Each structure stands twice: as structure tokens, then as C-alpha cells.
From TrEMBL:
A GO MF label: transmembrane transporter activity
Species, as recorded: Phaseolus vulgaris (Kidney bean)
Keyword Transmembrane helix: yes
InterPro entries, alphabetized: MFS (IPR011701), MFS_trans_sf (IPR036259)
Subcellular location(s) of the protein: Membrane
Descriptive protein name: Major facilitator superfamily (MFS) profile domain-containing protein
Bilayer-spanning residue ranges: 93-112, 118-143, 155-175, 181-201, 284-304, 311-331, 337-357, 407-426
Classification via SUPFAM superfamilies: MFS general substrate transporter
Amino acid sequence: MLQRCTNMAWLRGFRELRPMLHLLLPLTIHWIAEEMTVSVLVDVTTSALCPGDSTCSKAIYINGLQQTIVGVFKMVVLPLLGQLSDEHGRKPLLLFTISTSIFPFALLVWRQSEEFVYAYYVLRTISNIISQGSIFCISVAYVADVVNESKRAAVFSWISGLLSASHVLGDLLARFLPEKYIFAVSIVLLIVCPVYMKFFLVESMILAPKNDRESGCWAKIVNVPQQRFKSMRRAAEIVIFSPTLRGMALVSFFYELGMSGISSVLLYYLKAVFGFNKNQFSELLMMVGIGSIFSQMLLLPILNPLVGEKVILCSALLASIAYAWLYGLAWAPWVPYLSASFGIIYVLVKPATYAIISNATSSTNQGKAQTFIAGAQSISDLLSPIAMSPLTSWFLSSNAPFECKGFSIVCASICMIISLCLACILKPDSNWSNDIEGSTETPLLNDN
């Protein structure tokens, strides 16, 4: 009986993905291309900025500064992109956001000197402001347009599983490709993605014609800021006046505050403490990715009808706390591998979060709600490096007040404990009362 339920849940999730093939294929290629650069970037930036050193405080601080700048601007840009996707369609916004990753990596293909690494950081910062989080949020809104509410959790989990599978493939390429070819291959794959979307992706929204032909050029210029302000206020009202969305905004904020702080310094911490290089980084990332494929594509679709998104969310948050403690207190090179194993469970935070938000949001406000909460998360990207970068650098130095090189990671786990407490008191609901009459778009819901 259990085997039958497992097969049905798996096949049902797979069947729901078929109408989204032309979305998921370029997204998968994009994620592979970005992931294959992650493990080698640490070596490239360290070699360029601190030649001959295994620890590079300059790189840690620049990464922290980059994350802070991205966090500042994402607070505005993410909700704006979500509103535009609700009003003008998903496809043009996906094309725009997915194309921005091409330019920073093109610089590293050209040269990897100190000057080019600094230029990379500038372009990558701009790219992250536009694309980081927005690609997935707009894709989630696309899914909500074509998939019914009862089936979204399984589909979101499948898409997250594809993200994990992409990371595994990217890490495999990084593990076995010579370092000098990694960025060149990545650029080719990044260019393929928007080209494929342009020709094959079908718009998921039926947009009503705009009635502004009689307006003059000046009137249009004046109206644009007013329309953006009204749309931003509407997005804020949708989240603030919904207990579920308001609670999820807080849960997401504190979780991202801890996890983004850890991710910004983790590879540099492992390189300084245990001498890890791109091979060990790739092994850790592949280990998490392979397990994540199983948990997101098989485990969540089976468990969700039985226990619901809230139980899955709380369990995943608990696993993220264990993940942080083991990394922060790692006493031997094998401990990071044990810690990474908890990533198999904590990756369920994202699909559970997207499902709760989507089910509590009206069909015409998916982009607004998802990206507004993602914008609130970006505040954490602003705050976490302010503490994590100097704290990590301090405890990795010889001037540390006591011996605990991962103390900053242990501190970051406090934020995830707060997130778990908030998730435990959350009462998810389904709220379709916010539908806007006369909306300019109509989702193409799939009733199959």
C-alpha cells in the first residue's frame, strides 16, 4: 500500500511538470552553469587578491560587502520585478533576469587578474540584485498560473529537486573539468538559456490590452511612479493583513538571516581551518545535492498529504540548526561531511515556504506575494554580513579571544532557532479573498 502511494505521488508530481518543460529545461541548464563556478571561485578570488595565502580576509570582506549591497537593493528590486511579472507577464521578466549572469563570468573567462576579479565583483553584484531570488520567485508564480492549489506543494518540491540535481551536475563538472575550462563552459550554458526561452517558452498569463493610447508621453512618465507605488502598497497590504503571509515573512527573514550569513563565509572558513580546496567543496556540495534530490522529489510529495507543509517546514528548520552547530563546532575534517548530510532535510524549507505562501495568496497576486516576502528576506542579506564577515575573520585570526574558529556560524544558528519558534506557532490557511476584480491578467490554471 505504501509502495503504491509512493508511486502515485511520484508519478503525479512528474505528470504536473510536463506543461512546464520549456521553463524547467533552461532553468536547469542555468543552475548547472552557475553551480559549476561556485567551488572554483574561492580559489580564483583568493589567488588573485591574496597570492600565496590560504586565508584571505580581503575576499571575505568583499563577499560580505557584495552581499550587503545586494541586500539593500533587492528590498526594492525583488518586489518590483514580481509586480511587473503580474502585470506584464512572466516570460519577459524571466528573459531579463536570467540573462544578467552572463556578463560577470565573461570577465573571468577573459582574465583572472586582480583588476578583473574586482570588475567581476561589481558586475556580479548588479547581476545578483536583479536575478538572485527573482528567477525562482517568478518561476514559482509561473507554476501557480498553470497548476492547481492542491498540487502545488508537490510541483514546487519537484522543481527544488531539479535545482538540487542541477547543483549535483554542476559540482560534477567542477570536480572533473580542468579549472581553465570551467568558466568558458559556464558562459556557453548561460547563453543557451535565454535563447531557448525566447523561442520555446509560452507565456502563462493572458494579458488584457492596455488603455493608455490617448495618454501623452509626459503623462505616461508621471503615471509610472504612481502605478509602481500603488502596486508596492498593494503587495505590502496583501502580506501585512494576512496572518499566514505575515508569519511566513518573519520565518523566512530569520531563517535567511542565519543561513545567508553561514553561506557567505562557509567555504572560506573550511579553506582556512581544514585546507579544503575545490575538490572537497565539490564533494560536499554533491553530497547535499544527491540527498536533496531524493528528499524533494520523493519524500516531500509523499509526506505533504500526510503531515502538511507546516510539519515539513519545522522539521527542515530543526535540521538547519543541527547543520549550523556541526559546522561551527567541527573538530575534524570529516565533521563537515556529517554536517552537510543535514542539508538533505533543511532543503525542504524552500518548497514548504513557497507552498504555504502560494496557498495563502490569491491567483492574481502570486508574483507580488512571493517577491515581497523574498524582498523581506533580502534585508537579512544586508544585515548578516555586517556581523558575519568581521566575526569570522576575527575568530580565524591569531587574535581570537578563545579557540572556536566557527563561533560566527554557531551565532548564526540563533537566528534559525528564532525562525523555528515562529514556524511552530504559525497557522497556515488558504485565502483566496484577495482576488482583484478586473485584473489585467488571467492565470492559465490547469484543471487536470
